[in-house]
């Protein structure tokens, strides 16, 4: 898959097994993957214009995915990201109060490995910032 070469993906999820599995799988597909299980570490290590796609868990200790995305958008306003969550629909409905369009940028866990491959490829193909 030549389209994956040089594509960088950031994954921030407090579930180490999740991040390790997806990192291994996506690297096998040719992506460069940075993973963090602590959103504070991800924020401290973030470099502008490094990632083509960022995936944030919605529910994490210390800082949730929404807070992290807002802080990173202050650093890189064009950051292309999605939320990944195992949260139920009720949780998402509550988030819609402040973020009416949130469901458009949520990917629900669990995802089969082929689903994550298809989802990542589709997202990167539709990334409005592809000209980086």
Describe this structure in a few short sentences.
By secondary structure, the protein is of the alpha/beta class. The chain has five helices and five strands. The chain has a five-stranded parallel β-sheet, with helices on both faces.
Question: How would you sum up this structure, described in words?
Answer:
This protein is of the alpha/beta class and about 130 residues long. It has one domain: Rossmann fold. The chain contains five helices and five strands, in the order βαβαβαβαβα. The model has no long low-confidence stretch (mean pLDDT about 85).
Tell me the CATH architecture.
Answer: 3-Layer(aba) Sandwich
Q: Label the overall shape.
A: globular
- Could you say what the CATH topology is called? Rossmann fold
Task: Give the assembly state of these chains.
Answer: single chain
Which stretches of 5+ consecutive residues score pLDDT under 50? none
SS class: alpha/beta
Total domain count: 1
H-E string? EHEHEHEHEH
Average pLDDT reading? 87
Provide the descriptors you would attach to this structure in a database record.
single chain; 132 residues; alpha/beta; Rossmann fold; five-stranded parallel sheet; 5 strands; 39% helix; globular
Q: What's the arrangement of secondary structure elements?
A:
Layout (H helix, E strand, L loop, with lengths): L7 E5 L3 H13 L3 E5 L2 H7 L7 E5 L7 H11 L5 E5 L3 H7 L10 E3 L4 H14 L6
Parallel strand pairs: 1-2, 1-3, 3-4, 4-5
